[in-house]
Amino acid sequence: MEYIAMDTLRDGPVADLLHDTEKLIVKQKFEAVEAMANAAANAVNLDALGNLGEVANKYDVYTDNGGDKFRVVEQSDYCGLTGRCCCNPNHKLKLHVYAPEVSPKDEVMVFDRPCKCGQCCACCGCCQQEMIVNNGTGRDQVGYIKQPFLGGGFSPKLQVMERDGDDPYCTIESDATCCIAGMCCDHTFRIKDHDGNEIGKIVKQKPSSFQEVATELASDSDVFAIEFNKDLDVNKKATLFGALYLIDYMFFENEGEANVDVVNQK
């Protein structure tokens, strides 16, 4: 995709929505079809069966005081070589971001992720995860997130830049070493500028109630929080917001495949 330098988000509705924002809460919607498919897969001890119930993700995004901010909807193919059924969680997808207070039908941002072979080694372009952040038209690039060579080693890392080939203006790195995912604790990814100063963080929050534990065990539904400096550039805030979803698909999309057999009660 050709990069076009524009102040699209700085001058559009996203500027008003993100200018003073310091924290967003992202809640993935519970999908009953996925939960039933995972339960059936566990009952017959056939994990691949769970992929048949994969549906496109949807997210509600709130301010830290509970106000509505965005709706995010995944667009992806179910079948095919890059579809959800075959390639989840590495499938090709677009995330359409809507701002209900602006328009329920017109996107304000689009996050575009190509299909990749996986995220374990990240030794070449075909397996290095990436995401392009565009304005609402989907044509004008705002930012770019990419997994570095070897994925950052033992602590997973992402590089954030304006476009592929530019020097990163910040990095996102996990606090954890090797072990990512799980529900026993928060999982924090620190956002640091090129001087090493922390300018924000992305946190996959641990379940806070029995209901949330049950939901995460049965499905892919998760809760995230992202924080950034209030005076951070709007384009950078939007790109880091997109990085949250890349992290979700990379590390937390298959948590609902926990081997809990509610049918045979084991």
Give a topology summary.
Layout: H1 8-11, H2 13-18, E1 23-28, H3 32-43, E2 58-63, E3 68-75, H4 84-87, E4 93-99, E5 103-113, E6 130-135, E7 141-146, E8 157-161, E9 170-174, E10 187-193, E11 198-204, H5 210-218, E12 223-228, H6 234-252
Antiparallel strand pairs: 1-2, 1-12, 2-3, 3-4, 4-5, 5-6, 6-7, 7-8, 8-9, 9-10, 10-11, 11-12
Report what the structure shows.
The structure is a single chain. With about 270 residues, this protein is α+β, with helices and mostly antiparallel strands. The chain is about 20% helix and about 30% strand. The protein is built from six helices and twelve strands. A twelve-stranded antiparallel beta barrel has the order 1-2-3-4-5-6-7-8-9-10-11-12. The radius of gyration is 18 Å and the shape is globular.
> Mind summarizing the main beta sheet?
12 strands, antiparallel, barrel
Count of strand segments: 12
Q: Beta-strand level of the residues, as a percent range? A: 25-35%
Q: What helical percentage do the residues reach? A: 10-25%
Element order: H for helix, E for strand: HHEHEEHEEEEEEEEHEH
Offer a quick outline of the entry.
This protein is an alpha+beta fold.
Features:
single chain; 266 residues; alpha+beta; 12 strands; globular; disordered C terminus
